[in-house]
Predict the structure.
Amino acid sequence: MANTLGNLSKALLLGLAALLLVIVGFHGGVIGTDLYAFGNALLRVVHTWAGVLWIGLLYYFNFVQIPTMPQVPAELKPGVTKYIAPKALLYFRHSALLTVVIGLAIAGHNGYLAQALVFGEGFRVIGLGMWLGLIMAFNVWFLIWPNQKIALGIVDGDADAKAKAGKTAMIFSRTNFILSFPMLYCMIVQGNGLAA
C-alpha cells in the first residue's frame, strides 16, 4: 500500500479510477443519453480540480512559503529555492492555465462566453469572476513566473536583480491572493441563484 500511495503517479491514477467509478456508478446511464450534460459536468469537474490546485498553491505560497522563508536558516533555503519552489511553480502556472482554458470552454459550451465577458444581463457576476481569473492568470504567467525565474536563479541575475524580482513576484502573488476572494465568490454564487 505504501508503495502505491507513496508514488504520486500511482495515487493520481487511483484518484482518476475512483472518479470513473463514481461517474459510472451514479451517471453511467446518462453518459450515452445526454452527452451535452455529461460534457458540461466533466468540464466543470476538471475546471474545479484545476482551480483547487491553482488557488491551493497560491494560498500555500501566501500562507506558508512567503512568511516562513525569512525564518529559514540560509543553509537550508536552497532546499526550498532549488527543489520545492520550482516544482510548486510548475504546477501553479499550469493549473492556472488549465483553469482558465477550461473555464472559457465551459462558458463557450453553454453559450454565455461573450455575454459574460462584456458583463451582459444575468452574467455580470460570472463575468467579473472570469475577468478576475484572467487577470490572475496573466499575473501568474507574465509577472510572477518571469520574476520567480530570476529570484530562484533559474535564469541569470545578480543579487540586486534577484531581490527586486523576488519582491515583484511577491507583490503580484499577494495581488492574486487578494483577487482570489472576490473571484471565488463570483464563481460560487453564479451557480446558486445569486447571479446578477
In short: The chain is about 85% helix and 0% strand. The radius of gyration is 20 Å. Residues 1-33 form one domain.
